[in-house]
Amino acid sequence: GTPSDPVVVPGDPDGPTDPVDPGQPEPDFDQPLSIPPLADSVVDEDGTRVFQLTAQAGTTSFRDGVETETWGFNGDFLGPTLRARRGEQVAVEVTNTLGESTSVHWHGMHLPPEMDGGPHQEVEAGGTWRPTWLIDQPAATLWYHPHPHGRTEKHVYLGMSGMFILDDDEADTVGLPDEYGVDDIPVIVQDKSFTEDGQLTMESPVPSGVMGEALMVNGTIGAVQEVTTERVRLRLLNGSTLRSYNFGFDDDRSFQLVASDGGLLPAPHETNRVQLTPGERAEIVVEMEPGSETMLRSYPQQLGEIADPDGYGALDTLDVLRLEAADELAPSAVVAGELSDHERLDEADAATTRTFVMKGLALNGQRMDMNRIDEVVTVDTTEVWVVRNEDPMPHNFHIHDVQFEVLSVDGAPPPPELSGRKDTIYTEPGREYRLIMRFEHYANPEMPYMYHCHLLRHEDFGLMGQFVVVEPGTEPPTTLPGPGHD
Ligand code: C2O
Ligand code: CU
Questions:
Q1: What is the pLDDT of residues 194-232, one digit of tens each?
Q2: Atom of ligand 1 nearest to the CA of 464
Q3: What is the ipTM of this complex?
Q4: All structural domains of the chain
Q5: Residues near 354 by Cβ (< 8 Å), separated by ≥ 6?
Q6: Considering only CA atoms, which residue is closest to atom 3 of ligand 1?
């Protein structure tokens, strides 16, 4: 490819064809975990907190002596952690220095559709974009990543992702470890596949995307994190394009699951496994004994009745991150027994029920069309979305703008890990997921939000639809006008 296009894409005639180096040594888990820096920001005279993100190409040394071409924000790989508090107005000045257009989507954020960073807000090569919005949702671990039409997998795979942490007063008072990089650790888990000469490749024997042979956390392969406190909070993000993870520890210890995609659970859930499909997040609190160590590991996944479990890495056991406790640990607060008293949405209030079936790699029989509006939602209403995966392969389902609650899975009440606010949910083949959500504040009949499978090759292939939110009485549009929409 060209210098701005380092990845080996499927079908690239110049690309190497052997994706895996069988001689690659097992990592020793002695590499200090890289912690993405907290992004600098300035508060301007209007009180807006302003961040800068520059999309750029560079190289990264994932292994000694090998320089790999990568993309990142404000650096060579991944991006800084953005952090803001509920009630703040934020703005992000995005500059694109790549040789092609990209976009930056704020995954999990409630914000106006013009600011969402989806495929209708691409930033041209050399261009800039300055979205601004009010942070108006509970504390949560969100993230940002590109969303250019048909190229999301490539941009994310090359390294363009970062966390966006939201704070609020409620989450400050429930005893969670909160010193960033010390006892509050971002854990962006990704798998990558390398060519023999150490470049990232998207070549894959699986049509759904890359099942990488190398696992990395925040870009570090074989990472160790020193723990200096009795409890440590891990903000887990599945930043992979295809692979799911079923996290646990090698000594099978239990931990407290305290938050899902949209923020705190009603109460901590004591468990020894948490499964995350691409795009999902979970916050866990792990207790450590002085001088002890444990390995965060991904165990075989519970993906349901898929046709090719091996092809989706469902049977893999993979070491992820070693935690090593110091001989003396500073005391940590005890996590409160109740975390969030967020009022749950009531199905009786739902104005509309919609059904979404994923089948044949299409959504309700159609593939994504930038000019077609698939659903029209009235602002300030509650809706139930019923989602089914009728393909014999894994899919998940992500909705922009809102956090939803899970009403039921196959008619049964949701398990504890699905008891909080979510924006992405795994959809097992043959199961039915009833989700409830409320669309508030922002209406624009000409600018859609997306919903899609977050297995990024599926998304790029067209397993995505568009909805607009409109004021009551607005004539519902079905197509979008003008150039730039195709
Ligand atoms: Cu994380 Cu529409 O994406
Ligand atoms: Cu999918």
A1: 999 999 999 988 889 999 999 999 999 999 999 999 999
A2: 2
A3: 0.98
A4: 31-167 (2.60.40.420), 184-330 (2.60.40.420), 347-470 (2.60.40.420)
A5: 375, 383, 384, 385, 386
A6: 107
